[in-house]
Structure formats: C-alpha cells, structure tokens
Amino acid sequence: MSVDDRTRDEMLAAVPSLRAFAVSLCGNVDRADDLVQEALMRALANIDSFRPGSNMSAWLFTILRNHFRSEYRKRRREVEDPDGWHAQTLSSQPEQQPHMEFEELREALKKLPEAQREALILVGASGFSCEEAAEICGCAVGTIKSRVSRARRHLASLLSITDASDLAPDLRQVG
Hints:
About 65% of the residues lie in helices and about 0% in strands. The chain has 8 helices and no strands. It has helices at about 5-25, 30-45, 55-75, 85-90, 95-110, 115-125, 130-135, 140-160. The protein is globular. Mean pLDDT is about 80; it is low at about 170-175.
C-alpha cells in the first residue's frame, strides 16, 4: 500500500470536511472520528480503485457514507433511545445563546428526512457542488437539488425562520 505525496495530501485535506459530515450523520463526535478513521483506512486499503484525476473528496465521502449506512443497519438491533431521554440525562444543557442556537439547529437537522439532511450537509455545509453530491449519493443531480431545496424549506419552518433578518437579528445596519 504505497501512496504518493499528492494523494496523501488530498486525503489529509479532506479530513475536516469528512469529520463534519460524519458528525452530521451520527451526532456523536467520538463516533464520527471513528467513522473518519475507518473510511480513511478503507480508502488506503483500496487506493488502487481510486481513479487518478477524479474527485478524492467525493470518493472519501462515498466510502464514509457507505460505511455509516452499513454500521447503521448493524446497530438497528441495539437498544434505542427514540425520545432522547436517556441521552439528555448524560449531558448538560448549554448555557450560552450560541450553544442553544446550535442545539436547536442540530435538533432541527435530526427531524429532516435522512436523504434531505444528507444532501443539505453535502451541498450547504461541506461545499460540494450538486453534481458532486449526486455522485456521492448515487442519484441524479435534479434529485439532489430537490432534496436541498426541500431540506432548506423544512429547516426554515422548524426554526421559525421567515426571512433573512431572522438569521442574524443582532446584526443591524449602522448608518
């Protein structure tokens, strides 16, 4: 398993985005780190299947996403906490406004259908184009665009956002 410097650098450059995507999928930082590590190990083990000149980030995101889904299917047999009661007893509630807003966003994201949340995170947070996200998800570009649009509308509704001024109410024009 020999990896050239350029390939190694491309893989390392993708790690922060992979980690953010993994956190958005599983909601747990430690588990997300494990997912990223496993995805990178799988990528290295199968580096010969990577097509030089193609999008390394998209390839890594696809590996991570597929691994997450495989794990999810296996974990479905574990004890669930559907109402989040047990999980809430294990953490302290945020005390500062930004933390509360982030928690509201995180909870709202959980309420989105998985396909919409995934598309929104890939395009809106991870910076992938709709074409790249479609390749990662294995669907048509129009499907990604539709999922992102629906996810944004649904998220805005869940967060009671009616216009742009609701996004940053503390930032006012001085003049």
